[in-house]
């Protein structure tokens, strides 16, 4: 019988960085994943690492820590992390005001930011529509990663150089504690043993401890996404965020003028579907465009699974075209991504007897904050 210091359940970004920090601390770690490879939120997202969008509290700090963790890994192994920065582009005077106020807030936090005039925005982003960008705010330190490969490369690096033991196609259905040891049972009846267990199961609440998640108050969010055909001739470097993102992201809620911000009538359907517009050019030259937010309780989550609502995609495309000009808007892929989230913008933590540690519900900030947040969490697990 092998006994691990830590078994991590779930190989998304939250699970993978639990493993990363535990291995850094010299622990013996096993990570179990239910699918042949992780295919959930961690590989379906934009790959924008944007501390600038986070609530200006511990989540912003976790994002800052994550920047240095991604950077230090990238220096040794190519995990697709590119430091091309993030652009927030304002389309009206209210959004310009928020950018100017946010610039001050980030300066106070000693976080590099540059205000851009309309002309500078167009110089930096030639694809920007003439009529859209009134001003911009640029964060030069921020990263983009390729979500479809990043987490696999980090995991392979941990297996190859740090001694991670990994097993896929292993759905965990039970964790129980006997004489201070946690026994983890898979759907195939395999047993694994550890001192501590971290459950990082994303939005999958049916297989393992469903009674806890039924009472967790967590919400499931569904996001519509799409990618154009590859366009290597278009240069859209970095993370591109729209006026609707400025109105939506938590950091801007700390701006003095935010409480008096009004919503123009045309934005009503965008608010209804939680749409804001983001762009990220993937390494193959395709432009990833999204996103929207439909919500359901844990108990009603199946309702979100059935179809992709094309009315939402049309709204996304309409606003994307108002912002950016592309040689073609031929879409090669549509997909939906899902994550669990809390109602207070934090993360869901639950602990059983100082042995079993649940961490999920990180919401829409897991690519940005998980490497920093899990550093704190692993410290608590082994305290
Ligand atoms: C469309 C979209 C766009 C996004 N864009 C961004 C962005 O640009 N920047 C950003 O910071 N964040 C973004 N996010 C959020 C980010 O993707 C998530 O916060 C993050 O991926 C969550 O990671 P996770 O490990 O908690 O969950 P997941 O990625 O869902 O991983 C959980 C893993 O656990 C496994 N699992 C579940 N149950 C079991 C079990 N019983 N046994 C074994 N394995 C199990 C699952 O198979 C899965 O692989 C986006 C999310 C979406 C959906």
Keywords:
383 residues, alpha+beta, FAD/NAD(P)-binding domain, 2 domains, 9-stranded mixed sheet, 8-stranded mixed sheet, 26% strand, binds flavin-adenine dinucleotide
What's the short version?
The protein has 383 residues and is of the alpha+beta class. It is 31% helix and 26% strand. The protein folds into two domains: 1-82 and 143-217 and 345-383, FAD/NAD(P)-binding domain (3-Layer(bba) Sandwich); 86-140 and 219-341, D-Amino Acid Oxidase, Chain A, domain 2, CATH 3.30.9.10.
Structure description:
The structure is a single chain. The longest helix is centred in the N-terminal third of the chain and has 19 residues, at 58-76. Helix 1 (13-24) crosses helix 11 and helix 3 packs across helix 11 (366-381). Strands 4, 5, 6, 12, 13, 14, 15, 16 and 17 form a 9-stranded mixed β-sheet that branches. Strands 1, 2, 8, 9, 10, 11, 18 and 19 form an 8-stranded mixed β-sheet that branches. Strands 3-7 form a two-stranded antiparallel ribbon. Helices cover 31% and strands 26% of the residues. The radius of gyration is 21 Å and the shape is globular. It is an alpha+beta fold. The model has no long low-confidence stretch (mean pLDDT 97). It starts with a strand and ends with a helix. The chain folds into 2 domains: 1-82 and 143-217 and 345-383, FAD/NAD(P)-binding domain (3-Layer(bba) Sandwich), CATH 3.50.50; 86-140 and 219-341, D-Amino Acid Oxidase, subunit A, domain 2 (D-Amino Acid Oxidase, Chain A, domain 2, 2-Layer Sandwich). The site of flavin-adenine dinucleotide (FAD) has 44 residues, from helix 1, helix 2, strand 12, strand 17 and helix 11.
